[in-house]
Design a protein that fits this description.
Elements (H helix, E strand, L loop, with lengths): L6 E7 L3 H9 L6 E6 L6 H7 L3 E4 L9 H9 L5 E4 L4 E3 L1 H11 L7 E10 L9 E9 L19 E3 L9 E7 L1 H18 L7 H18 L6 H31 L1
Length: 258
């Protein structure tokens, strides 16, 4: 295999010891595993070293998510193709095989949206169990905005991996509790308002955005089939939107006063 068809796995970490060993075992079939660590204080680096990973560091500073370190980490990869994996996500063998088949075949796109399976309250719920993440792409020219819930800018055509490809996915190991979601809501909305600084929301958005998000997850995505977990998760997602809009309104009012 020539270098043009090789793949680097990039993993951003910060105190990620809980699932890291399992995550690294799942990516041993790739050409390189690069860990970009944000000053971890647990066993993260020891685990990475034991598994033969190449390690680079990025200052933690006051960052509340991995996004500020993404572009730097990707730029440090040795090979032209990059698969970005979070420190609590498993790459299935089928996904590994699929990616190599694509880069060695004709007409491979510059980026691929990968299916990801998530769980909540010990189960995979209809409302949030499945999403697609733009995690595989050519390294050249990649810019990842330093805000939470953003996708990288890819130079070229992108595709979605079809659902007909059985087990070609990322598996999200995190089983988020309501306390986890509350912490993330506060941290992530603080980060997200930075990319929405030009927005001027009012009463319509404060009511409409949470209502739409609840309707989408609970009705359109059939979260109602999951009983109470589906109802709670749809409600938490709606609450996230309420807090986000409320913080933007608050920020704009404070700026106007100043």
């Amino acid at each position: 295999m020539n270098d043009e068809n090789r793949i680097s796995v990039v993993i951003n970490t910060r105190n990620a010891e809980q699932h890291l060993q399992q995550v690294l075992e799942a990516v041993k079939g790739f050409d390189e595993v690069l860990v970009c660590d944000m000053e971890s204080e647990d066993a993260t680096l020891d685990i990475a070293r034991r598994n033969g990973c190449r390690i680079v560091t990025f200052p933690k500073a006051d960052h509340k998510s991995a996004e500020p370190a993404r572009t730097f980490a990707i730029s440090q990869a040795r090979y032209p193709w990059v698969l970005v994996v979070d420190a609590d996500e498993i790459v299935t063998p089928e996904l590994c095989e699929y990616l190599y088949r694509r880069v060695n075949g004709p007409d491979c796109p510059a980026g691929l949206y990968i299916p990801r399976w998530n769980r909540f309250m010990l189960r995979y719920t209809k409302s949030i169990s499945y999403d697609r993440q733009l995690r595989f792409f050519r390294r050249e020219g990649i810019v990842w905005p330093p805000y939470v819930h953003t996708f990288p800018t890819v130079q070229g055509r992108t595709e979605k991996i079809p659902s007909s490809e059985q087990n070609v996915r990322l598996i999200h190991l995190a089983d988020e509790t309501i306390s986890d979601l509350m912490r993330k809501t506060n941290a992530y909305t603080d980060s997200e308002i930075l990319k929405r600084s030009a927005k001027h929301y009012g009463l319509g958005a404060l009511i409409g955005r949470p209502a739409w998000r609840f309707f989408r997850n609970y009705v359109l995505k059939m979260g109602f089939l999951d009983g109470l977990p589906g109802l709670i998760r749809a409600g938490m997602d709606a609450f996230y939107q309420f807090v986000l809009v409320a913080k933007i309104i608050e920020k704009n009012k404070r700026m106007n006063i100043e």
